[in-house]
Design brief:
With 138 residues, the protein is mainly alpha-helical. 60% of the residues lie in helices and 10% in strands. The two termini are 71 Å apart.
Length: 138
Amino acid sequence: MTTAEKVAYLKGLTEGYGIDPAAKEGKILSTILEILEDLALDVEDLEDEVAELEEGLDAVSEDLADVEDEVYGDLDDLDDEYGDEDEDDGPLFYETECPVCGEIISLDEDAIENPNIKCPACGASLHLTDEEEENDGE
């Protein structure tokens, strides 16, 4: 039962009970019923407008999806065409300087984890700190 139907039912009850619209209570009830009737009609109008807006929004959303497909295309096609940028391009190398001979040494990630790193030029043992490891990667 809609709000308008409930108000109409209430109006029928007041008439059925024989409430005199000229009496004080009857005037109050009939004014309240008129206000309720107006509110019920306003609510129905708003519900209709919301339904229309939803339909319009759905249409705009579909149109936007079509435009996005046209402009951006299928992103999977771009990955196939240009390759996946997230793929690993191989091991990362870090550079550090030997404190003894000054030789620049390139180390991969596995070599950095090794505690016995030696300079290939002079054979000196290298001890990397966490700070050096972080700076060497930049």
